[in-house]
Amino acid sequence: MPKPKTYFIFTFGCQMNKSDSERVAGDYQSRGYREAKTVDQADEIVINTCSIRKSAEDRARSLINNLAKKFKQMADKPKIILTGCMIHHGEEKLLTMLPFVDEILPISEVGFNSAAIRRDTIHAWIPISAGCNSFCTYCIVPLSRGREISRPLKDILAEVKDLVKRGYSEITLVGQNVNSYGLEKVGIGLRKLLLRQNLKLPSNVSQYKQAKGKPPFVQLLDKICENKAIKKLRFMSSNPWDFSDELIDCILRHPQIDRFIHLPVQSGSNRTLSRMNRGYTWQDYLNIVNKLRQKIPNVTLGTDIIVGFPGETDRDFQATVKLAKKVGWQVAFVARYSPRPGTAAWRLYKDDVSAVVKKQRWQILENLINQPHLIHRPKVIK
Ligand code: SF4
């Protein structure tokens, strides 16, 4: 019998990428491949990339260059396949930039329903949607992953049932914007519109249908929580413009849903939020936080913040500091803005905040939110 072919996967970036890699592995195994113990033993190497910052792309490039050196002298070189967010550069450009790459794989070709190969035996990631219809100006996701597609409810529930049968009791639902699950409405035309120079950006909120009755994401959570073998249910990422009252009530009625909510704010300045095309104000954000705190007393919160976004003045930054003091996030992923080619911010704005100032602002928020023992942190929200 011939020896089965082997694969090896490198994964960069967020949980969505980790979940995608589990499905890429499942796709390989369904075709008779086996996972190689080391990269040297692999017939095919998949590099699942992240484009959130330039440094993330640089790490993938450097890995590919190292692999190129490593396998240069080999007669029977492994095939190198690139997938993930870097494919927004386009196949032609990538193959020129990285000549050692043999193939570009859009992650959508793997699909939701390839069986995931999971390492964890208790906790599982389940993708419920892919792509994004929100056009936050700094973000490459709408270009790299395309329009938002929600996975059918029955397929998600079937996967939950199967996981429970196999002994899993913790689930995290993943998607770029989980709480817009089932509400997408735009087609491919918008992507073309976005790419046209100087075009006014579509507002992110306008790209979703208004939920009539119970929002589809709430229906999904209710259905999953009927299965009492699920002891812990989490979801990420949520966005403020779809964080409905129904969702808050749903969290309240299901003790299985984790009380830690990750709700990205990105900035506490309305001017910056508008330039980011985030579709809410800091007051809207605080309103959600207050509702969560009033209804769910043991709720804790995390967030994402970008400092040094183009045009961010000291005053804008101080608005973020002020909001941080009001909200009291337990944790924040604070990123220093770096322009991503292809995004609206890259086209429309100058990266005019110096690296030194970005670092200072980053440090202030790190100390305030992530190192609270270093300074006083108020708890009262007004
Ligand atoms: S919601 Fe905004 S930040 Fe999140 S993936 Fe979509 S465009 Fe990017």
Structure description:
- The chain has 382 residues and is of the alpha/beta class.
- It is globular.
- Strand 3 (44-49), helix 2 (54-71) and strand 4 form a beta-alpha-beta unit.
- It has helices spanning 15-30, 54-71, 91-97, 141-144, 153-165, 189-195, 216-225, 245-253, 270-275, 282-295, 314-327, 344-348, 355-370, and strands at residues 6-11, 34-35, 44-49, 79-84, 103-105, 123-127, 129-130, 149-150, 170-174, 232-236, 260-262, 300-307, 331-336.
- Helix 11 (314-327) runs parallel beside helix 13.
- Strands 2-1-3-4-5 form a five-stranded parallel beta sheet, sandwiched between helices.
- It binds iron/sulfur cluster (SF4).
- Iron/sulfur cluster is lined by residues 132, 134-136, 139, 141-142, 176-177, 239.
| Hetero groups | iron/sulfur cluster
Order of helices and strands: EHEEHEHEEEHEHEHHEHEHHEHEHH
Query: What level of helicity do the residues show?
Result: 25-40%
- Strands side by side in the biggest sheet: 2-1-3-4-5
Instruction: Report the total helices.
Output: 13
Radius of gyration: 22 Å
Amino- and carboxy-terminal Cα gap? 71 Å
Binned strand content = 15-25%
* Global outline: globular
Mean pLDDT: 89
Low-pLDDT runs of 5+ residues are 376-382
What's the β-strand tally? Answer: 13
Largest sheet: 5 strands, parallel
Sheet/helix structural class: alpha/beta
Name the descriptors.
382 residues, alpha/beta, five-stranded parallel sheet, three-stranded parallel sheet, binds iron/sulfur cluster
What can be said about this structure in brief?
By secondary structure, the chain is of the alpha/beta class. The protein is built from 13 helices and 13 strands.
